[in-house]
Design a protein that fits this description.
The complex is a heterodimer of chains A (382) and B (308). Chain A is an alpha+beta fold and 382 residues long. Chain A contains ten helices and 20 strands. In chain A, a hairpin with a 2-residue loop joins strand 11 and strand 12. The chains are: A alpha+beta (382), B mainly alpha (308). The complex binds adenosine-5'-diphosphate and magnesium ion.
Chain lengths: 382, 308
């Protein structure tokens, strides 16, 4: 039996794909169309169903709902060895008893590729990940980063129509992670590989992907380009993932078109509503540390302007990350290149366009809750 | 220990401290005393009897002069010399069968599934029953009027009862009954120790179930197979009660353990019996050495599993 050479598709369509384990739904209604050459990142915290989605795509896990289509060929009923997708596992899953070269050649041998071609393509793939000197070693003799590169070479040598990667960098140290990230991006561009990449690291997802799929408890929260998700998160959960470190519970006191006025434990904030909000609704106001500005005397701001006490200053090279304690007891994190010192007072502000209000759906657990002030309750009831 | 004494011990210029550090580097420190009971146990129960038996085997007797007299006598006497072959003839096929037949079952059961514990418990039962009880049961089961023969005659596979007791087959089957669960449980632990993602990876690379088994699982299992074979072989080679009860202990199933036993307790020739026991051990070591030599041609590193 020979495996047919992988056919390129123009579109891979997931139609309401779901997977349950007994009563528990690990993945619910994932609908997504992946275009040829696209780099998709599945992003979400641990246990949100990312690996489940990937394994369903690879055929390692049967679906319990929905279907997967390669153009107009249904593939979710096919076995993994017939799908011909390349996969990079989180623990690399290199065959410990085979040399690097044998590991990379394995898939080609399974496809009954002529030996001369195997030799050539294996050498090419090993060169691609710069492992020429390690080709005869066993995986156990390689460093983590090198093992990772073998795993990638092993997946791409088959020229698969789709490459699946399950948190491929999570076992590497920070510096190597950055290096490998660049390599993966470079490979993707050089080989025009269609890739689905699973990660819990938003920075990784933003820097690599053409489009992101944010998952929470098996459900899609938002699908979009990095820019869309970054500037317009669909809910507080996505905002949290996209680096909106300041997420504060508040209550809507007024609605003016797309803007709302919210009371954050006594501080009045004018924010851009990202979800439908009515007066009296519980809301979460989010603003990124970079969008909180230090306001000099005489500055005005449409979002909010409030004075606080600098509590912590964390030096980060060009910038400092500062925690400012507000009069209402809440603290605000901001990143600035101004020279700030702990213990001094500072006025901070943010624009309405950069201050977002989401419905409070209890999806973000780390939001501090000091209770809503008495005036706000009164305003909400009136 | 008070906090004050701690830095003193860590200063390398203190000669006593430095010495202690160097020893600790090589794993020598006071915790080694914890090994003492085990060392006493091993010396008392293993080393001493072994050395005693060894010296006994070199003790000359009336009809076996010289230090190697007992050994020379063994190899000169064809009835005794033959016990090696008769025992190997039973032990090697039975061990091969037990080891190899365990592989497909263990492979099939390698994952987690409900009822795994029940199956393994069931398999442990023959081990706990002991060889005598199993031999008795087999005697009833395999005898001329036993269930097996009655069943075979009922379905007309055979018209006269098959002779399965008091001969080679009786002993062979008892070795399987008592040896298979042992081999199976060992192999199961080896297959469970192989990282299941390796096979998943192979399947995404186009390998069929058979190819995955042959190219991934089997090579990674080879060291486990060698170990299992060695242990199961040692057990089978010392076959005694079942040879006595299910075989023809004075004839075709005159196995080496019986030879040693009859010298010790029928003829009270302890030194000859000791020599036979030493020869038994030597044959076992030879077979194990051969198996390990074969094993060395395979990969022997980590299998990426939980144990790695
Ligand atoms: N084989 C399984 N049996 C039962 N539950 C599972 C199984 N695999 C995953 N799950 C559950 O499905 C959910 C999603 O798991 P997973 O896809 O591995 O998450 P992620 O990769 O995003 O960390 C988790 O709650 C997990 O406990
Ligand atoms: Mg995962």
């Amino acid at each position: 039996m020979t495996v047919a050479p992988a056919k390129e598709f123009s579109e891979l369509r997931l139609d309401r794909v779901g997977r349950s384990f007994g009563e528990a739904n690990a993945l619910t209604d994932l609908s997504l169309t992946i275009k040829q050459g696209e780099f998709i990142a599945l992003l979400g915290p641990s246990g949100c169903g990312k690996s489940t989605a990937l394994n369903c795509l690879a055929g390692l896990l049967p679906l319990t709902h929905g279907s997967i289509w390669e153009d107009d060929r249904r593939i979710d009923t096919m076995r993994p060895e017939k799908r011909g997708f390349g996969m990079v596992f989180q623990n690399y899953a290199l065959f410990p008893h085979m040399s690097v070269r044998k590991n990379v050649a394995f898939g080609l041998e399974m496809r009954k590729t002529p030996p001369a071609e195997i030799k050539e393509r294996v050498a090419e793939a090993i060169e691609l990940v710069h492992l020429e000197d390690q080709a005869s070693k066993l995986p156990g003799q390689l460093s983590g980063g090198q093992q990772q590169r073998v795993a990638i070479a092993r997946a791409v040598v088959l020229r698969p129509p789709l490459v699946l990667m399950d948190e491929p960098l999570s076992n590497l140290d920070a510096k190597l992670r950055l290096e490998m990230r660049t390599q993966i991006r470079r490979l993707h561009q050089a080989l025009n590989l269609t890739t689905v990449y699973v990660t819990h690291d938003q920075e990784e997802a933003l820097s690599l992907a053409d489009r992101l799929v944010v998952l929470r408890l098996g459900k899609v929260q938002q699908i979009g380009t990095p820019r869309e998700l970054y500037s317009q998160p669909a809910n507080a959960f996505v905002a949290d993932f996209m680096g909106y470190r300041n997420l504060l519970k508040a209550q809507v006191t007024a609605v003016e078109g797309k803007q709302v006025v919210a009371d954050v434990s006594g501080i009045r904030v004018r924010a851009t509503a990202m979800t439908d909000l009515k007066v009296g609704d519980a809301t979460i106001v989010g603003v990124r540390p970079d969008d909180v500005l230090v306001a000099g005397p005489g500055t005005t701001s449409d979002g909010f302007l409030v004075e606080g006490l600098i509590e912590v200053v964390e030096y980060q090279g060009r910038e400092v990350v500062t925690e400012v304690r507000l009069p209402n007891g809440l603290s605000l994190t901001l990143r600035t290149d101004e020279d700030l010192h702990a213990g001094s007072r500072v006025s901070v502000a943010a624009a309405t366009g950069r201050t977002l209000a989401f419905a409070d759906d209890n999806t973000v657990t780390r939001v501090p809750d000091l209770g809503v002030s008495a005036e706000a309750v009164a305003a909400g009831e009136s | 220990m008070s906090a004050g004494t701690l830095p003193a011990a860590a200063v390398p210029t203190d000669p006593k401290g430095a010495w202690r550090h160097r020893l600790a580097d090589r794993g020598v420190d006071r915790t080694l005393w914890l090994l003492l009971p085990a060392v006493i146990f091993v010396v008392a129960l293993f080393v001493y009897p072994f050395l005693y038996g060894l010296s006994l085997s070199f003790t000359p007797t009336k009809d076996a002069p010289g230090i190697f007299g007992n050994y020379a006598k063994f190899f000169a006497d064809s009835y005794y010399r033959n016990t090696i072959w008769l025992t190997l003839r039973l032990a090697i096929p039975a061990t091969l069968f037990n080891t190899l037949a365990s592989v497909p079952f263990a492979y099939w059961m390698r994952g987690r599934f409900p009822g795994k514990r029940a199956v393994t418990t069931m398999l442990v039962v023959p081990i706990t029953l002991g060889t005598v009880l199993t031999a008795e049961g087999l005697l009833n089961f395999l005898g001329n009027a036993g269930w097996l023969n009655r069943f075979l005659m009922l379905i007309h596979v055979t018209d006269t009862p098959l002779k399965l007791t008091y001969n080679y087959w009786g002993v062979f089957l008892s070795l399987i009954l008592s040896g298979f669960p042992f081999a199976f449980l060992l192999i199961l632990s080896y297959t469970s120790g192989i990282d299941p993602t390796l096979e998943r990876a192979a399947s995404t690379m186009g390998a069929s179930t058979w190819q995955r088994f042959m190219r991934i699982t089997l090579p990674l299992l080879a060291p486990g197979l060698a170990t299992t074979f060695s242990l199961a072989f040692v057990m089978a080679f010392s076959v005694f009660p079942s040879a006595l009860m299910l075989g023809n202990p004075q004839g075709e199933e005159h196995v080496i353990a019986i030879a040693a036993y009859e010298q010790a307790y029928t003829y009270y020739n302890y030194s000859y019996a000791s020599a036979i026991a030493m020869i038994m051990g030597a044959v076992e070591l030879l077979v194990i050495a051969a198996v390990q030599a074969i094993r060395r041609t395979f990969y022997i590193g980590t299998t990426g599993g939980k144990g790695a």
